[in-house]
Input
Amino acid sequence: MAKIVGGLTSSHIPAIGSAIARDLFEDPYWKPFFDGFPAARQWLHDVKPDIAIVIYNDHGLNFFLDKQPTFAIGAAPEYRNEDEGWGIPTIPAFKGAPEFSWHLIDSLVGDEFDMVTCQEMAVDHGFTVPMQLFWPDFSYTDVATVPLVINTVQHPLPSPARCYKLGQALRRAVESYPEDLNVVILGTGGLSHQLDGERAGFINKKFDLMCMDKIVDEPEVFLDMSIDDLVRDAGAQGAEFILWLAMRGALGDKVKLVHRNYHLPISNTATGLLCLDSAA
Output
């Protein structure tokens, strides 16, 4: 059967994609951020995932404020990046896994999660930036992908507990797939940041580090939190932490921390990287 080998977290700030395109890896502003990734890439090399399920939030590319699903999942043979105005060069398409996606959809709907099924889907920086960070130089073309979108844009947003339960259902779906496949789960976005309003530029380092500590061995501490709690402590866009919780829910009870890195700020955002092995 298929198995989940572990999970990764990363920011998906669009400016990162621009920095990658401009080869700014040694630039003093960017170097502390990019230096965090080689250890995670080595882990990926060792566990050799066949499929990456990327949990992210769409930024108006597929869904806008007039039509915003709570959960959506891709079932396309490929996914192409459509730049949202950042001037990033065209990059190779991402390979899909339609048969695997449909199995996930059937299982998740059977677990009472109402998924919007996308047989055609463009992907934005929320998806493309993490994939480029973990599989540099377009090596992501060797890995099949499943985009899984959670609404963090139009309130009401799904609660931390609901997203964690989605992750648990995702684990059941993966493990019921009969083919032997290694699957890695990416939880993207965050950490604390707010891009507009009176608190624009808000970053809460203390809360971020608590999140990075507790999500490893005590994710249940977040399950009584509300979205209002997250917005208060992490900023309006810091509610993206629910994407990390969905990833963590998919990994099971015990995980091994392989690597972590925290850096701020990048484009007024606190960035957190975790590499979690679920073989513990």
User: Anything to note?
Assistant: The mean pLDDT is 94.
